[in-house]
Amino acid sequence: MPTLLDLCGVPIPETVERYSLASDQRRDHLYCEHHEDEKATRMIRSEQYKLIWYPTGNCVQLFDLEKDPQEMYDLSEFPKYADVRGRLTDLLIQNLYGRDLEWVKDGRLVGEPDKAFESSPNRGLANQRGWR
User: 89: helix, coil or strand?
Assistant: First the structure.
């Protein structure tokens, strides 16, 4: 909404939280969520680092986006990045809401037990045979 208002030249009300994407203002972090329940993924990104959390299995990945923009090297287990991981984990917890709060105990991410992977048939167009 703030971006559309800004592009139309309409003043953004003070009650609107966040900035226009067309402005020079920047957020200090981005929070994203994808899917729910056992397929859930949550992410927090600062200017330089990105932390991805998979609640099922309570798995974390950490990437340095300046040195590794393609996210090829997970830094989450390196002691050198423990402070970055801790800071971004705390920020992620602050952004969780609703049912996601069940994955937090005593200020720590606990997630859900891991589940065995079960492959399923590919019913998409990538599995079609024909004139390709």
Answer: helix
User: Cα–Cα distances in Å, from 127 out to 2, 74, 123?
Assistant: 41, 31, 7
Query: Residue 127 above 80 pLDDT?
Result: no
Region of 18 on the Ramachandran plot (φ > 0 left; ψ -120 to 50 alpha; else beta): left
- The one-letter code for the residue type at 84 is V
**Residue 37: its pLDDT value, please?**
81
Average pLDDT over residues 105-124: 82
**Strand ranges inside the chain, DSSP E:** 30-34, 41-45, 49-54, 59-64, 104-105, 108-109
Token output for 62: 């950490």
* Rounded Cα gap, residues 62 and 78, in angstroms: 10
**Residues linked to residue 98 through DSSP beta bridges, in sequence order:** none
pLDDT value for 21: 76
Q: How far is CA 5 from each of CA 18, 20, 85, 89, 116, rounded to the nearest angstrom?
A: 12, 8, 36, 33, 47
**pTM score, whole prediction:** 0.75
> Is residue 132 pLDDT above 50, yes or no?
no
